[in-house]
Amino acid sequence: MQTINLTIDGKSVTAQSGQTILQIATDNGIAIPNLCYDPRLKSYGACGLCTVEVEGSSKLLRSCATLATDGMVIHTDSPRNRQSRKVALELLMSDHEGDCLGPCTLNCPAGTDCQGYLKQIALGNDYQAVKIIKDKLPLPASIGRICPHPCETACRRKLVEEPISIAHLKYFAADRVLASDNPYKPEVMPASGKKVAIVGGGPGGLTAAYFLGSKGHAVTIYDAMPRMGGMLRYGIPEYRLPKKILDAEITEIADLGVVMHNNVNVGKDISFMELKAENDAVLVAIGAWKSSKIGCPGEELQGVMGGIDFLREVALGERPTIGDNVAVVGGGNTAMDACRTAVRLGAKRVYIIYRRTQAESPADDIEIEEAKEEGVIFRFLTNPAEIIGENGKVKEINLQIMQLGEPDASGRRSPIPVEGKFETLPMDTVIAAIGQKINIDGFEDLQQNRWGNICADEKTFRTSLDSVFAVGDATNNGADIAITAIGEAHKAAGVIDTYLHGIEIPYKKPYVSEKEVTPEMFVDRQKQTRIKMPTRPAEERNKDFNEVNCGLIEEQARKEAARCLECGCHDYADCKLIDYANCYDLDVARLKGEKHPSFIEDSLVSIERDQGKCILCNLCVRVCDEVAEKSILGLVDKGFDTVIKAEFNNPATITYCKDCQKCAEACPTGALKVVSPKTLLRS
Amino acid sequence: MNDCKCKMNNDLSLIKDVLLEYGNTSSNTITILQKTQEIYGYLPVDVIYHIAARIGSTPAKVMGVATFYNQFNFQPVGKYLIMLCQGTACHVNGSQRIEKAICEELKIKDGETTPDGLFTIKNVACLGCCSLSPVMMIDGETYGYLTPEKTIKILNDFRKRGQKTCEL
Amino acid sequence: MRIVVGMGSCGIAAGAKDVYQAICAIKKTDDDFTVGVTGCIGMCFLEPIVDIYDDKKNLLHRMGNVRVKDVALIVQALRENNPDRLAPLCITPENADFLKKQTRIALQHCGVIDPTDINDYLASDGYQALQKVLKSMMPEEVIEEIKISGLAGRGGAGFPTWFKWDAARKAPSNTKYMICNADEGDPGAYMDRAVIEGDPHSLIEGMLIAAYAIGAQDAMVYVRAEYPLAIIVLEDAIKQALDKGFLGQNILGSGFSCNIRIKAGAGAFVCGEETAMLESLEGKRGMPRLKPPFPAEYGYNGKPSNINNVETFANIAWIINNGGKKFAALGTEGSKGTKVFALTGKIKRGGLVEVPMGMTLREIIFDIGGGIRKDKEFKAVQIGGPSGGCLPASLLDTTIDYKALNATGAIMGSGGMVVMDSSTCMVNMAKFFLDFTAKESCGKCTHCRLGTKRMLEILSRITEGKGKEGDIELLEELSYAIKDGSLCGLGQSAPNPVLTTLNYFRDEYEAHIVDKECPAKECTELLVYAILADKCTGCTLCARKCPTGAIHGEAKKLHTIDQDACIKCGQCVDLCRFAAISIEGGSRHADN
Predict the structure, then answer these.
(1) How many structural domains are present in chain C?
(2) Residues in chain A with pLDDT < 50?
């Protein structure tokens, strides 16, 4: 042994001769990426990530296998190294057939870990489930009731029979934990001394308050309405979301130390610039509270009102006079809320006027079904041509009959009028539920886009003003569903937190691997029907505002959660491959080509192997050979066709796997997974 | 290996002498596999297990070696193994047309065996007869300056020969 | 007199065996001539070759393309002692020039002596060098002589031979190995096969001298499994050498002992890489090792080992006999001696040629090889196989020299030289090599295993007319990444065929990608078949035989091809008796 001196990335280090560059770098806190290195094993040098540049050598050297010599000058992160690693990772990812995350999570605007909490619910750990949910979404009991659940739309279980009832399970668990003696409360970090003002106490504002509050910042929410909750309170009817549930979840957020001021109209009661001056950061989450106009003659008549305006009045406890005949114009969820509310207010004939068909309707199917059950009359393919009044009040509505034309660029068939075909209905009230717009009053200092929405950077959520951020319906593309605002608020809270600590780190969408699936892959799965949420009978519920849903029975809920196919990778959190992949700006699409298909092999005692995720680092083979001394695993074939197989892949022949599971521990990706032992095979 | 056409319960005594001569060390693995293939025509799974046990290796290791080399077959091959050269010179001089002619004539693809068990076709790297390209080797004999017509004629000669020996 | 039939693998493939058997069959015991065999003389384009020697071993007649039907005439002429009758069979002076312009050292005995008889080798001063070395030279002196000769490894990389020997000699160990790399995997090179089949003892002698120099007592020859005849010839030669005491214990009473074993490869190109070969010799998957340690330190079974190529060994005895200086007098400043090339492809006179370093490609291809078949235009020459590159006409004056060739992007390699004319598509050629290296990659390094696969996919789509803008740049990016990220020579050089064709024939790539056209008219998917109005007689033959019914037309009227239905099988072209079907490289031309 001899002491040697070398320079790694400009740092002078001392080491012993006989050590590899990788060992020395690691000892000195310099991380060199690697996927096939294990200090217990002989150097292998396959992955191509650990290469370094050594001055005086024209080639890139594998640091895992190159012994350091005295005086070496080493660069571990030079452009040439980064380029080589980037291509290596792109190549590996181009042959990586697996899902990092389930389609549910990927399709959720807030990225909630559905697979994670479904598993906990299936196991009976509701507290754990809520903890996982609240990592992304602090209002699960509320959102679980009202979310149009893009997660379920994406749920792969639909290839077997039907998607998992994810949203209902979410509020099942959240309700139970909320009602328990031990409700979940996140850890709150010590006070940072920074002040944040949030304008708007809707789902976006509340979410940002939750995450910023738990980071130790002093958060104050200012809201113009009498109570917190925004559209969740004033746009969603009680029968869908009982306000005591919302209150309980808001209280939890207040308990983190978040100060909440209601009836404060920024721009009137306090100026926006004043707020900005008094705080280290301001988040604008004011929503979109103006109803869009129908755009037909007669809109100025008494008896014509906006959908959200109507819902807000009802939520505030008023009972507007709407008469016997009510037309709700629009096909979205606000239209459904409005028509079902109108039914509950005693209207005799409530119509939905929608210019397309049910298939094109953006409202949830269940909302349409329940509205129908409650007596709402659906007039698809009609569009208001004129609202006819008498003495300044609505008397009739004249409808243009429509038909569907050719699909447009988005694939949606656009409605076109059927020439000369009209229909007139007697009407007392016309509710326009066709869209929402922002009310910019008080925030004119912020730059707006051509639709009048506040411009917010997609990665930093920054507005045109320094220290002012914005999320939700008031920004960029305008109104969307609650979970979208929540997702933005969560990401913005992360950015604001870094901003408050001095270095603003923009949000970066993680790169993930996604698998291509076909229904044929699921033919072997046993079919299990999706749970149906029990509801109160239509003739009972359409007379009051009590909750329609009765809630899931525990046993059924656990069973439903267990239907999850667990698409996401068990190793996502620990996967070295995806970690590195996210450190380099990969463009995998350009290398799209043949992939090794994903399929599960279970030829070892308690290990399942997914061929699609194998990156041929050969660690499992080498560990089995050099550490476990069994040599059950081996490489088969060569070139691109090389795969790892456990002894001919024949379960019957595995008689001497000692179940040490060292192979799975060594695997840097999720290719090997420990499952319950298949003891029968050993005999 | 579930769709494997190879047979199990092979007569392991056939390679007794091979193992006696070479079985003392795993560094003879390739030689043993070559001799084994000469005897069985291919490498049956149970024989590989037997070899692994005898040379102090494991089946996974022996299989790893066997599958690395193009020479080894894991399915029974036809009576006549057509090794079609795909070297550079043969490529430049039209080996693809020869492959097409053989595949169309025998109705099999690279690596496959005719249902009558007479022919197997295998594309191989250079046979080292570049000046006579395109070439193929059947039964250790090399045939050069191939044209599709000439190739089919050679196949027909083998077919006749093969059928004759079957009748005997 | 003696009739000698060239019975190398290519001779046999051309029918030499039948000729030989025919001669033996009609030869009578009282005939005044003997019949013998020899290896490959290198004039493969003339195989089967039959030579007539007088009793003093002077070549009297050399006949080419001999058929069985010619045998009676030959035998008759000899019986009548009337060699003039052989004149029609004899090779032309032009063809004889093929040999005259060469300088033969490694191939000096090939096609001359009988490889199956050690006595023939001994009669040609065989094993003189070994005796000289064992009697009068110290190992260091042997290495010094090789150093003076400037001999560099002929397998591809061109590393100085003496340096490797010296390192192996100095490595401390009682057990050392001398290994011959006869795993000639470069598709398009076959000089090693010719040497083993035609002159096995020069290999054995070279190996023994090398073994003596480094102190090895065990030697191995790793021969490709695709060379069955070479294995048989070498096995027999080893036996004969043992019998004569040139091999085994206490060779020629010198106290030096050495044995040679044959290990047959099993078909894996990467095993030509020396550390992969070591793995294979040890009975493992032929996956290259990390270097260092180099084989001279840690080789076969962990012992110091030296690995040289067949052609390298075939030079050794000559150098010892004639002196390193004489060898070094041949060639250029940086590349000494001669090099054997396998001249193949669209060449008139294809075969093995051995030329002094420093000769130009033009001299080899045109002066020795006679130029392009059918006097077509020369387009490119591929040198160095899958690790080499394609050079255009503008580089024909490049000399055979390690440095000069490397500067072009090609490499000397093992000596494959495949000549191409205008009918060879350079993109397709690059694809051919990538297909080879992708299949033959051992699969260990990410860059090589997946990079060559992706490059192959990109090249495939280009040849299918599905190339995209940016594909060329992507190929270049991958090429450099693979070179940087691969452990062994296979991966490091695998992109060379793509890089050189991109460098010299970029317009051809662009034609495929942008114009969807294959200028060489080789890429089937891009071709457009059309019927020439002035030639079609309306005979209906093509329409009747077209497998997809893509050809329409009434009898005695002009026919047309439905391009959507055409599968570009080319049957109509072969069938048409009026040459009325044209093939265009792309639709751009067909539309005009």
Answers:
(1) 5
(2) 680-683
